[in-house]
Amino acid sequence: MTQLAAVERKLQVPESQVLWETYAARYAALQAQPLTAAEVRGWLAQWSALDAELADTGSKLSTHADLHTDDPAAQERFQTFVAQVMPPASRAGQALKEKLLAVPEYEPPADFALTYRRFRDEAALFREANVDLAVTHEAQKNRHSVLTGNQKVRLGGEEVTIPQARQRLDSPERAEREAAWRALAESNLEVAPDLDAVMLGLIETRRQLARNADQTNYRDFRWKELDRVDYTPADCLAFHEAVRDEVVPLTTRMMGEIAATLGLDSVRPWDYNRNNLLDPQGRESLRPFTTGAELEELAQQAFAGLDEGLAARFQQMREGGLLDLESRPGKMSHAYCQYFPTTNEPFVLMNVVGTAEDVRVLFHEVGHAFHGFYSGDAQPLVWNRWSPIEFVEIPSMAMEFLTLDHLGHALSPEDLHRYREKLLQGVVGFLPWAAQMDAFQHWLYAEAPEELSIEALDAKWLELDRTFHPFINWKGLDERIRAKGWHYYHIFQVPFYYIEYAMCYLAAVGVWRQARGDAGGALERYKASLRLGNASPVPELYRAAGVEFRFDQAHIRGLMTFLQEQLQG
């Protein structure tokens, strides 16, 4: 069986599981069951198993649709599940939460206290009007997946996928980079009107979700929905200012030095890839592998050097149809880690083209997979797996750093030095982007006028881009291209989920700083923090990993100093 065939087999869903009738009687039985405080634990286990089964089906259908954005049948099957199963499931879940919250004299044990509080808050936020509106919201997001998944680029007389075109942005030849950038820009402008229309629909839907829940704006609604209790919007605004003041000057200086070394008159858009800055010596980008199978083997050996248990988990993914790495037409161009809770199995989707960035992204996504494995092993209740979103990127980002000392089999000492340098530069280059993404959404959902046009969105993005990326020279170029920078996966698919990447990147640097002096201890703390899952508050999870939950200006300044020292060393 080929690997793709194994993936397809893993994602198979029986027709019965796409029907609400398959689940309805069991939810009704849980609702009808008499419940005392002493009976809660057993009742929760039944509910957890049922929710896991439902989540399993949704995850597999969603992933299959992403692998086949050009297959109307795959899209329809997923949308049918969203429209016909998720609304009654949402209502049943609300009823069960209310039943649990009404149990007299029930005091949740420590390992369930946070989830109990979340259930209470979710129940308070629930509105019947939002059940059907959520179906509309999912359909709108799926439209974005279909549009971008089927996007093509004409480059050099051939048609290529988005990831294949982006690969050429790393060429040491400036003319080749510019050609790829212009081809991508042309492709993006072609799909822009359709994406603009999707976003206007999403904005109205999201505003209505907030109004239905008696929230002032969608930011307030999303804050509650995401259970953000450890920081405020004001803390995020302060983070934007800290990045502007501490990181943007550093990034500007770093890019200025690279441009000067290469003899460039200025940094044009095709000269800046925040994930892979130009090589000052003008060398070809690293190409550590050619095929997805080679990347798997590269990673397998790296994990074997890092930790036997992690290596075994990755081998399980390889053998179990839990990896789909190759880029191909009709496949969504993003990368992510999905999760199937009934079997405690993560699934990684990528679009690799042979770059060092692909290596980093694989370690990142498999770090997520390790989180799923370890939290699933330690936490029986499905709601207690993974973690709050402010921590969930630490397992992935820290894995990018923890594997650094275990790539000698794949990279020469010189190339490993380059890979390490790119990774550290990537943290610096990412923070202004993260601040810009977050700042745009704060404006969009809490400050923008009620009558909102696409032109206003474009203008705001331009304003922010000039603040956070002032070193890029756009003179003489079509400003429409720059203005559409907000046409990004997270803006459409997971609103307000982005600052967490910045929080966790800062923490991941802290984990790596520990590992420089105590590799074994840092790894054990890393795995211990994963096992805590979603049953511990954010600050406690950070402490378990050996770092602080901080993203203030002083903390950022200290970590930027550390990164500069490492880059110079």
UniProtKB/TrEMBL annotation:
This is M3 family oligoendopeptidase. Its cofactor is Zn(2+). It comes from Deinococcus hohokamensis. It comes from the Bacteria. Pfam families: Peptidase_M3. The lineage of its organism: Bacteria, Thermotogati, Deinococcota, Deinococci, Deinococcales. Its EC number is 3.4.-.-. Keywords: Hydrolase, Metal-binding, Metalloprotease, Protease, Zinc. SUPFAM superfamilies: Metalloproteases ('zincins'), catalytic domain. GO terms for molecular function: hydrolase activity. Binds 1 zinc ion. Belongs to the peptidase M3 family. Residues 170-558 form the Peptidase M3A/M3B catalytic domain. PANTHER family: PROTEASE M3 THIMET OLIGOPEPTIDASE-RELATED, PUTATIVE-RELATED.
